[in-house]
Amino acid sequence: MGIFIESQFDTQFFLWKELKEWIVCVIEKEGFIVGDLNYSFVSDEEILEINRKFLDHDYYTDIITFDEVDYDIINGDIVISVERVVENAKELHCEYIEEFCRVVIHGVLHLCGYADRSELDVALMRKKENYYLGTRSFT
């Protein structure tokens, strides 16, 4: 059990230990237990291929979450396009690290049962993201 991270990008700047601890805190605050959670940071082309292959969607996205939650144990695979996160940060006029953390925790919130299909769902998801972004102790 644990959080596993795979990245093809130079992410030496990032504090992986602190990120993992933060993810665990979020999962526990949501009333769940950490199981096996796998993060893969990929290119736009790779996430597009995954989107086509597994979801039959033909578009780029910043994150895809594969839910394998078992009752109250959070298990799953989260695939994040680093290129989309960079573009999102530019469009939103925010720091890359903030958008990176938002997308990382967005996937966790999906595994905790939050959706983003309706306007109400999106509003609650953003509220949760903003709350948890405020709880991180790293920048």
Key structural traits:
four-stranded mixed sheet, Collagenase (Catalytic Domain), about 50% helix, about 140 residues, alpha/beta
Question: How is this structure best summarized?
Answer:
The chain is of the alpha/beta class and 139 residues long. It has helices spanning 16-29, 44-55, 82-92, 96-111, 119-133, and strands at 2-7, 33-42, 63-67, 73-81. It has a single domain (2-133), classed as 3-Layer(aba) Sandwich (Collagenase (Catalytic Domain)).
Helix and strand arrangement:
Elements: E1 2-7, H1 16-29, E2 33-42, H2 44-55, E3 63-67, E4 73-81, H3 82-92, H4 96-111, H5 119-133
Parallel strand pairs: 1-2, 2-4
Antiparallel strand pairs: 3-4
**In CATH, what is the class?**
Alpha Beta
Number of helices: 5
Strand proportion, as a percent range, falls in 15-25%
Give the class from helix and strand content and strand pairing: alpha/beta
Low-confidence stretches: none
* Domain module count: 1
* Form type: globular
Do you know the CATH topology? Collagenase (Catalytic Domain)
